[in-house]
Design goal:
about 325 residues, alpha+beta, Lipocalin, 17 strands
Amino acid sequence: MLSKFSKYIMIGICLIFSGKSFSQSDQLLQDLGYLIDDALFFSDKYITPATDAAVYQSSSGWVYSAKKRKLWDVTVGVNTNFFFVPNSDREFQIKNSDFQLLSIESGATSATVPTAIGNGDQIYLAGDLDGEPIRIETPKGINQNVVIYPHLSGALSLWYGTEVLVKYSPRVNLKRSEYQVYGFGIKHNLSQYFKSLEANKINLAATATYSNEDVSFDFLDIQTDFGNLGINRLSGLVDTYQMQLNASKEYKKIEVLAGFIANVSDFKYKLTGTKGAIEETIPLQYILNQRLKEIYKTKANFMGEISGRYQISKIFIQSTIAFGKFVNSNLSVQYEF
């Protein structure tokens, strides 16, 4: 963590290189440093459960089938994803001792507030910025038990039992938030090397994928005598690298799959809303985005997956459930060319 002195130096340097004039007092620079620390603390607690959830939403439903397909077979799927929001990640507790500038307005020493995937409850935080009072309403969560979003997927069969996989979701507007995912991968059939497995209609496949998730939420709308502070939109950017093993058994027109998923995700955070009026004096959004690097993180996840796929001519209906820390379900309707 930066020392207090280093934080003020950072603000001062940004002022100089932004070409802005400033006559702000030392007290303002100190208070802004404290406010940045408070925003950083709250950002981490608020958005991390949502980015954890985004990994689950992007991780399941990659594999249509574990069996070896014919060269140049193409499958296109229209998917609806259902993420079940767990109670344990819907809220977190804050205490006055967590903050340097702000405090809970009601006079309480602690309070429970929603995460980005929590409910719509709000409280007020208050403080003084260079002697002028500020009042902040904590952000709401999406207030949904199940998050539903659509996405497209596809698979192209190449040589030697290898397939190229793609997944794409347009930017979906959820309640007080937006979500987008895209990714690609490679699947290779392993059971082709074991004739006894193929003879019994048992299939094995290994898959490697990459996906990028972008989740954005309404954040802190802070009005001050210096203008809006421009930290009203917070985004989580997640890069996920995944390995997956699947086994399946065919029963006439039904294929039942079971899989094991292991992935590693890099989490980054960024303020992406419209810059506030304070930017005419202090490049606050830039400073905060630099400080948000302090809460970047890398996490590993391990999850199971079960799936059932039913064929109706060239149309396939598939239901998938992935489970681990969270539970995520995907319903897919596919057409095979």
